[in-house]
Amino acid sequence: MRRPRTGVGRLLGKAVLAFAGFMAVFPLLWTALNSLKNNVDIITRVPRVVFTPTLANISYILGRDSVLTGLYNSVVACGVAVLVGVVLGLPAAYAVARYPNRWAGDIQFFVLSLRFLPPVAVAIPLMVIWLQVGLYDTLAALIVTYSLLTISVIMWLAIPAFQAVPKEVEEAAFVDGYGAYSVFWRIALPVAARSLAGAVAFSFVLVWNEFLIALMLSSSNAKTLPIVASELSQQGMNVPWGILNASVVLLSLPPLLFLGVLSGFLNSVFRQKKT
Amino acid sequence: MSAIVCSHVDKSYGATSVIRDLNLSIEEHEFVVFLGPSGCGKSTLLRMLAGLEDISGGEISIGGTVVNDLDPGDRGVAMVFQNYALYPHMTIFDNIAFGLKRQNVPKAEIRQRVGAVSTTLGLDPYLDRKPAELSGGQQQRVAIARAMIKTPKVFLFDEPLSNLDAKLRNHMRVEIARLHQSLNTTTVYVTHDQLEAMTLADRIVLLRDGRIEQIGSPAEIYERPGNLFVAGFIGTPNMNFIDVTIGRDGDAWTLTNAGTVFTISGERFRLQQGERAVLGIRPPDLVAASPGASGNLLEGTADLIEFHGNDALVTFCLGGKEISALVPSRACPAIRADVRYGFDESSLHLFDAQSGMSLRRQ
Ligand SMILES: Nc1ncnc2c1ncn2[C@@H]1O[C@H](COP(=O)(O)OP(=O)(O)OP(=O)(O)O)[C@@H](O)[C@H]1O
Ligand SMILES: [Mg+2]
Predict the structure, then answer these.
(1) Residue B360 lies in a domain
(2) Does the beta carbon of B191 lie inside 6 Å of ligand 1?
């Protein structure tokens, strides 16, 4: 039964939505705002909305070698790991989804278990391994470790995405004369692209925000941005709030950019489809 | 030369056997319909022809070549799927052209051939659209266009019309019939819709549990069902069955069921005294008997009357069994009225009670 929408119900619904939206966005906005404030403007009893903006925090952040190194490490480690995840994870997921054998179930469970173990349980053995191999505190170790994460997350999300591609559509391509690899490239990938892009974005965000493993695997050279940012807050009683906020903004920008680019790409794909 | 030959074809999934020792040969230009109840293996057999399922045993050849180990694309077949299976990310043009692109047909020729096919099927206005922007009937036409353009040796259809509404289904059925008339390509068509099978087929292959029950033209299968299963499966409303015992009465034969005795000359049948048999009579073959009539009569009290338009289906009980007669609506009796129906011996079917095989002389 469809009930006619009453004005009150509608208003209430909108109010709830607006409230939820505010709860989600406000802290981010406030952080962005704070990154432009002097410390005096931040440590006031009454929050200040009107203030003289300063770029001091941001330029301080960008001027620090440790931050730049962290940024570089994060971008390289996460970028390469996501790339590896895409190159290895997607075909693997397709194989499991379309050509299931008696190992398929086990593979899926194993992939899942990597994500369900407490990160420490994974991080400590990894640390030992990398120490033994002699690659502790290198970007290479971080890339390999993160690749494990991205492969597992991408596989985990891509298997159902590939399974959702109607089997007959692929069979039609077989009857049209295409082989298994062409069907993967020309049918399965593009048809599942929307969900796959989501999987890739999710894996990127996951490793970009990753803290514990990065902490265990780096001492100085391979520190990623989250580690560097957290160190900024460990400077005693006199917390440099402005700088902290600026570093949070810096930390948040790449995932936002990544998602922005990705959703832009998706939108363009779909606009093409419509016209 | 036969277009398709299946010899001793088997298919099993693990321990479950789906197709058993199937032998079939389909002539060139023939329109063959696989008909049978759900789960009897129609789709499986079709997909084996297409190369989408591997063959567990036996041999399939298409156009004289054994295709057991050939990929679907190398068999010279084109297939239309039940749910259309269009490529959702491509335009209608690209959907139709996809197979040709694979064969490295020059661009200009592709454009020209797609144009010709889309004109035939009335798809010209939609070539730039995506499949999701088409109605079900239009999508199915695209699927047919995609199959047509490859000028295959064999068309394979797997219940292509079952996702369409009744009206569109009739329309598309006529279109497919026309298409076959003009292209004359060998066609194998799977359906569970009798009307489709009857109207489209040159020959019907009736399947049950992975075995062929009968092969024949629609008229043959309807008029001379080879066994009880075929007789019961084909024809709506369903054939009436009455268990009888065969007896002799002078030159004539008698068929006795409880109190009712039918007397027939029995020339068309191989009969044996004392044998138990099943008498079959189609509802339209029962005609209302005049009050004074004698001879072979089925009598009872009408307990259900279904109005079908021109005709009405009258159901009554005879010896504990429900019997239906299809009579003209204007001559339809009132409910609970006493009814008497007679039949002509030529419309009678007799089957062995044990084996279910027809007792008709060949
Ligand atoms: N992958 C499979 N594994 C095991 N059994 C299968 C598989 N595919 C089909 N079957 C079985 O094979 C039999 C035939 O299936 P098929 O799809 O050919 O039936 P059908 O005649 O096309 O029926 P319908 O009219 O419902 O489409 C069914 O009993 C089905 O359960
Ligand atoms: Mg089927």
Answers:
(1) no
(2) no
Proximal ligand: closest to the CA of B37: 1
| Residue B98 sits at the chain A interface (C-beta within 8 Å) | yes
For A230, other C-beta atoms within 10 Å of its C-beta total 15
Q: Which ipTM did the prediction report?
A: 0.87
Of B83, B89, B150, the CB nearest to A168: B83
CA B204 to ligand 1 centroid distance, Å? 20
How many domains would you assign to chain A?
Answer: 1
B16 lines ligand 1 (CB under 6 A): yes
Inter-chain residue contact A176 with B83, CB threshold 8 Å? no
Number of domains in chain B: 2
Asked whether the beta carbons of B296 and B252 are under 8 A apart, the reply is: no
- Using pLDDT thresholds of 50, 70 and 90, give the confidence band for residue A274: very low
Do the domain assignments include residue B256? yes
Same domain? For B100 and B11 the reply is yes
- Asked if B86 lies within 8 A of A174 by C-beta distance, the reply is no
Determine if ligand 1 sits within 6 Å of the CB of residue B54: no
pLDDT tens digits along B275-319: 999 999 999 999 998 877 778 889 899 999 999 999 999 999 988
pLDDT per residue as tens digits for the range B336-359? 999 999 999 999 999 999 999 999
Any A CB within 8 A of B54 CB: no
Q: How far is CA B101 from the centre of its chain?
A: 36
**What is the rounded CA–CA span in Å between residue B279 and residue B10?**
34
Alpha carbons B97 and B182: distance in angstroms, whole number: 21
Q: Quick one: B286 and B159 in the same domain?
A: no
Nearest to B77 among A168, A175, A179 (CB): A175
Residue with the smallest CA separation from ligand 1 atom 1 is B13
Backbone angles phi, psi at B355, to 5 degrees: -85, -20
Q: Give the residues of chain B that fall short of pLDDT 70.
A: 1
Prediction pTM value? 0.84
Average pLDDT over chain A reads: 86
- The enclosing domain of A270 has a CATH number of 1.10.3720.10
Q: What is the pLDDT of residue A66?
A: 87
Interatomic CA distance for residues B9 and A74, integer angstroms: 60
Bridge partners (DSSP) of residue B10 are: B57
